[in-house]
Amino acid sequence: MTVFKYGDDVNTDLLFPGRYTYTCAKAEEILPHLLEDLDPGFAKSVRPGDIIMAGRNFGCGSSREQPALGLKAAGIEAVVAKSFARIFFRAAINQGLLLVECAGAVEAYREGDTVKLDAAKGEIAVGGKSFSFAALPPEILAIREAGGLLPYARKRMKEAEKR
Asked: 86-95 and 66-73 helices cross at what angle (nearest 10)?
């Protein structure tokens, strides 16, 4: 697992450049452009299970879905940040992308540290130090487990039809 660490105010244009907004909608079209203006090697080096650590206000900017969709499609296990822009937070939930607010973990992380995350318990270990964060509500965990809001809603509808 690789941890990519970035600073404050990583906006949606840095996550996925706005110049591609109307030409890339599918995950496979978005992936090559993820973070290309901030970290040009990201798209080629990211692997499923990797984590992003970031500062304050991660995902600020426009309300486009492509940044969250792209990070989820790339296999990012979680984005751990000091804080998130609320509109990005919601887009990430819709995609089933795990976001964790934990300033202490971000500040403690040093390159090469191991990171272990337990979203259900609200715990993250960074380099052997343990940090707590607000455990995610069961509904959010269920949306993540289903792969996003639409698959979750479809699953719930099928369950309701069986009753």
From this structure: 50
Q: Tokens standing for 101? A: 């607010």
Full residue range of the structural domain in which residue 146 is found: 3-162
How many domains in the chain? 1
Cα separation, 159 vs 40, whole angstroms: 44
Q: What is the C-alpha to C-alpha distance for residues 47 and 79, in angstroms, rounded to an integer?
A: 14
Query: pTM score, two decimals?
Result: 0.93
CATH number at residue 136: 3.20.19.10
Mean pLDDT (10-residue bins), the chain, 163 residues: 96 96 93 97 97 98 93 97 96 96 97 93 95 92 94 94 87
Judged by DSSP in three states, 52 sits in: strand
Residues 16, 34: contact at Cβ < 8 Å? yes
Name 159's Cβ contacts closer than 8 Å, sequence gap at least 6: none
